[in-house]
Amino acid sequence: DSCQFLTYLHARIPRVDCSEHGVLQVKVPWAEPRSQFTLLFERLALDLLKECDIQGATDILRISWDEAWHILERAVKRGLQRKGEGVVAHIGIDEKAAAKGHKYLTLVCDLKASTVEYIGDGRKQESLDAYYGGLSESQREGIEAVAMDMWEAYIESTLDHVPGAEDKIVFDRFHILSHMAEAVDTVRKQEHQLLKKQGDETLKRTKYLWLYGQENIPLRRKEEFERLKSLDLKVGRAWAIKENLRRLWDCPSREEATQYWRRWFWWATHSRLEPVKKVAYLIKRHLHNVLTYFTHP
């Protein structure tokens, strides 16, 4: 816009009819080929698209949804061309829900640069194979560490494509502790149902309290939580086991972490809490790539 008026730039751009390459158009300094917007307008559009959703940006800019997406596509293409080929030494792999109905995307990120390197459809092995398949041999060899959750498809793809992947995969603590948090919540639900049958509402509205870490419990509920912890509750034991697992990553070395793990594993598997035991055995099956954290912190 110029002075709040829609402004159109009209120009007869020179074209040549080449016998070898067909019809070619001269590149103009104010716009991308096949774009009906000036570069300055596209820059404005990109700033808006970073600050609000597609619909909001199109309403302000008075362009269509498709036109907004084409502007984004051209920006991504320019960025990739500038980026060139390089080695991403530390990558993170995760899934992201893209829509309702269990539709997922596979995301690969550069953990040092905080950039998205690849997006693939689905969360199958082939979804990640496509990323590795696009790398050169030297790029795959340059990968030093791969952070991921314990999703078998991602594990198999990485083992197939990354040299020495057995010692480069690191199962990140966020996903491991998510499994433990789910176990604590399952224990709470089971115990709440038993207590409710006896007319005891002790655990009513306490779901999120047990999911907090000790340092994050809201001040207004600290007294309530201390009282709950003093009771002989199964969920209290499950929470304590979860909190102690968090300390594994504070160990100064892999050797000390291994010793700590053995003590924690004995406690978890002798807790008589089936959801907690299930997670303990899950971690044990993948323990080598949990402890690779101490090589690739």
From TrEMBL:
| Top-level taxonomic group | Bacteria
Ranges of residues in domain Transposase IS204/IS1001/IS1096/IS1165 DDE: 91-296
Question: What positions does the domain Transposase IS204/IS1001/IS1096/IS1165 helix-turn-helix occupy?
Answer: 26-76
Specify the signal sequence span: none
Q: Which InterPro entries match?
A: Transpos_ISL3, Transposase_DDE, Transposase_HTH
For this entry, the protein name equals ISL3 family transposase
| Organism field | Candidatus Hakubella thermalkaliphila
